[in-house]
Design a protein that fits this description.
By secondary structure, the chain is mainly α. It contains 13 helices and no strands. Helix 4 packs antiparallel against helix 6, helix 9 runs antiparallel to helix 12 and helix 10 runs antiparallel to helix 11.
């Protein structure tokens, strides 16, 4: 019996050895290394997808822009609603309450700005004419400026500027109706997002099959919400301080409606590059309209520009840099891309969207290998 079992075991070992030899000897195709043409084809597919995605984003601006803004704002308000849940307030109700406060605050902000902006728009041709009359004598002191404006006179320059001002006012008026519709879409999307935020998170988590992937989805969503919430809360405090100091600068500089200048500074600071440019030009025009002396006229704009430069290059990196480490060049490219896509709102969304993309990338890159369930 023992000999028979021994012989049977040897037979099985021999058959297994023969099967292994057949598998090794079989003509099994091996994966060949990627050639240059394969890489070109792969990157061409990726590039084509990026081009088509960019075209879709650009063409669907009227829908995607307010919805994206609502999602970003909803992430911040949802995070605050989760904090309120610690005091017994349901997250959905807390989110709606915060959304209502946000919309009411936005309404009062627009209401506070609409009267001076309407008055400014009505006086724009006269203001522009007086500004040109004030600035041209100073410009003509430089030889290069004399060459640049040779063959023209002050009246011709003024007439062209007034004509262009009318065209700009017409473009602004033509954009009022689409902006109103997009505002309605934004408010509806914000409310619905906050109401269904918990169910949406649950649906996304359960869409993954394994436990490890579900945990990874939870970590990614929590990390993105924390990054965006930290950015907006910290940036709001920094820009609030900037707006307060700007109001003081406007008051000391003799400009009218100093609190309104502080409010302008606070709001415009959320629009990188474009906001500080518009604000500086506005302060420059206001200074020229208020003071006869050139130095006094330039002082508010120069002071604000230096203040904003210090805030953006020293204060903000010192506070946000240890948690939000993003390459400044990538931020610059993102601002250019989203400004080209969606204008001023796109510039405001460039930083949050870059934070979301970088957070997802870092979380995916640092994920531990997925554990295999015992089979």
């Amino acid at each position: 019996m023992g000999a028979a079992l021994t012989g049977s075991g040897a037979f099985r070992k021999r058959k297994l050895a023969e099967l292994e030899a057949q598998v090794v000897a079989a003509d099994i195709p091996e994966t060949s290394p990627k050639t240059g043409l394969d890489l070109v084809v792969a990157w061409s597919i990726v590039g084509t997808f990026i081009i088509f995605a960019s075209a879709v984003i650009y063409m669907m601006e009227s829908i995607l822009m307010p919805v994206t803004l609502a999602i970003v704002i909803g992430m911040v308000l949802g995070l605050a609603a989760d904090r309120l849940a610690q005091y017994g307030l349901p997250p959905a109700l807390g989110g709606l309450l915060l959304a209502a406060i946000f919309v009411v605050g936005l309404f009062f902000l627009i209401n506070a700005l609409i009267e001076p902006l309407t008055s400014l728009a009505g006086q724009a041709p006269g203001i522009l004419e007086r500004a040109i009359e004030r600035v041209l004598p100073y410009i003509q002191r430089f030889e290069w400026a004399k060459v640049a404006i040779a063959g023209t006179d002050e009246k011709a320059v003024t007439d062209v500027a007034i004509q262009n001002a009318g065209t700009m006012l017409g473009l602004v008026a033509a954009g009022v109706t689409p902006a109103f519709i997009q505002t309605m879409v934004f408010m509806a999307a914000l409310g619905l997002f906050l109401v269904g935020r918990g169910h949406l998170r649950k649906t996304i988590i359960l869409a993954f099959a394994t436990r490890d992937r579900r945990l990874a989805a939870i970590r990614i969503m929590n990390a993105t919400e924390n990054a965006v919430g930290f950015y907006f809360s910290t940036a709001s405090l920094i820009y609030l301080a900037l707006g307060t100091i700007t109001a003081a600068i406007a008051f000391v500089g003799g400009l009218t409606m100093a609190p309104l200048w502080g409010l302008f500074a606070f709001v415009s600071s959320f629009i990188p590059y474009l906001g500080v440019t518009v604000m500086t030009i506005a302060l420059l025009c206001a200074g020229l309209m208020t003071h006869d002396a050139l130095l006094l006229a330039l002082a508010p704009a120069i002071a604000f520009f230096i203040l904003h430069l210090v805030m953006e290059n020293l204060v903000t990196p010192a506070i946000l840099g240890h948690r939000l480490e993003i390459n400044p060049f990538l931020i610059f490219l993102a601002i250019i891309f989203w400004t080209w896509m969606w204008g001023a709102v796109g510039a405001m969304l460039a930083m949050p969207l870059s934070l979301i993309a970088m957070t997802i990338f870092n979380e995916v890159r640092t994920q531990p290998p997925e554990r295999q369930l015992p089979g």
